[in-house]
């Protein structure tokens, strides 16, 4: 079977349009391919939306969130120009493992929103979480809700075959397998962590707003007996009460005044706050992950 080039696949996808999902492991070239596809569509006059569901190494919006960018109005589709999201869906952690439901629902909601605007091409970039049963479950239910027209899998060997095999057996989706180019180099764990910290730090640049909080604003609801100091450093999603996440914030517990505050670059007040499950510093350094059970004792 002749090898298909990425250029040929781009031409095929521009012709067929619809919703395209990109699957592959860490540093397999998914994002570069997706941005190139989006730029080819934009320059060809095709209305295109890009959805980034890689909540740990996000290129659209802050980490812990799925991000959506409408690319047709951009001068060019570059990492710098798509970095600010037009809309986000809050997940609350930088790893999809253990947070499958928020990832699936956030991605599905943004795909639905993009479709409602009438764009011709939707590109969904996904995380490098592909190994194990949880990864198969995540990809399966994400695709079941999204109902894409095409899935492009990026492989170095056969590592993606368990997921692609499930898709071929259970879904009426065209599956294209693309060999990862040898020039693509995997980043170290430290490099990936540094990139994430930089994204967090850039998001929490001044000017920042601070609000004193009531415990009644959270989802899930905080029991009255909860030690509020446990919430210090926790990432939260700001919800407007109309189904839209307007940004993320960081909780701060004042041990002297015994009050809880939130710091965020978002200046508008929120109708409610969704609790995340990761702690970070204002500089973007990860301080640890927690579960709801641990938070509420």
Structural description of this entry:
The chain is an alpha/beta fold and 297 residues long. The protein folds into 2 domains: 6-189, P-loop containing nucleotide triphosphate hydrolases (Rossmann fold, 3-Layer(aba) Sandwich), CATH 3.40.50.300; 204-295, Beta Barrel (Elongation Factor Tu (Ef-tu), domain 3), CATH 2.40.30. Helices cover 30% and strands 27% of the residues. It is built from 8 helices and 14 strands. It has helices at 6-16, 30-43, 79-82, 100-116, 133-146, 161-170, 189-203, 292-295, and strands at 18-24, 48-52, 65-70, 87-90, 121-125, 150-155, 174-179, 209-212, 218-219, 234-239, 245-254, 259-264, 272-280, 286-289. A 7-stranded mixed beta sheet has the order 4-3-2-5-1-6-7, with helices on both faces. Strand 13 and strand 14 (286-289) form a beta hairpin. Helix 1 (6-16) crosses helix 2, helix 4 runs parallel beside helix 5 (133-146) and helix 5 runs parallel beside helix 6 (161-170).
Span of the ends, CA to CA: 58 Å
Can you summarize the main beta sheet? 7 strands, mixed
Percent range for helical residues?
25-40%
Order of helices and strands: HEHEEHEHEHEHEHEEEEEEEH
Percentage of residues in DSSP E strands: 25-35%
Q: How many β strands by DSSP?
A: 14
Going across the major beta sheet, what is the strand order?
4-3-2-5-1-6-7
CATH class of the largest domain, named Alpha Beta
């Amino acid at each position: 079977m002749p090898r298909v080039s990425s250029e040929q696949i781009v031409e095929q996808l521009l012709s067929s349009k619809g919703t395209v999902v990109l699957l592959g492991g860490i540093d397999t070239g998914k994002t570069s391919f997706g941005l190139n596809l989006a730029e080819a569509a934009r320059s060809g006059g095709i209305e295109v939306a890009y959805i980034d569901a890689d909540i740990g190494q996000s290129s659209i919006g802050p980490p812990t969130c799925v991000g959506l960018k409408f690319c047709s109005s951009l001068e060019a589709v570059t990492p710098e120009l798509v970095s600010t999201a037009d809309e986000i869906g809050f997940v609350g952690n930088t790893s999809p493992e253990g947070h499958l439901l928020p990832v699936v629902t956030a991605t599905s909601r943004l795909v639905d929103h993009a479709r409602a605007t009438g764009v011709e091409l939707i590109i969904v970039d996904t995380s490098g979480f592909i190994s194990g049963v949880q990864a198969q479950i995540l990809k399966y239910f994400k695709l079941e809700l999204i109902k894409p027209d095409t899935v492009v899998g990026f492989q170095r060997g056969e590592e993606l075959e368990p997921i692609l095999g499930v898709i071929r057996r259970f879904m009426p989706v065209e599956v294209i397998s693309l060999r990862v180019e040898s020039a693509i180099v995997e980043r170290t764990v430290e490099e990936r962590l540094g990139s994430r910290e930089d994204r967090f730090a850039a998001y929490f640049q001044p000017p920042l707003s601070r609000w004193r909080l009531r415990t009644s604003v959270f989802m899930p609801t905080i029991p009255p007996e909860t030690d509020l100091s446990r919430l210090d450093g926790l990432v939260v999603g700001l919800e407007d009460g109309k189904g839209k996440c307007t940004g993320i914030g960081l909780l701060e517990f004042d041990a002297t005044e015994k009050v809880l505050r939130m710091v965020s670059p978002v200046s508008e007040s929120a109708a409610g706050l969704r609790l995340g499950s990761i702690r970070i510093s204002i500089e973007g350094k990860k301080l640890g992950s927690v579960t709801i059970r641990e938070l509420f004792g």
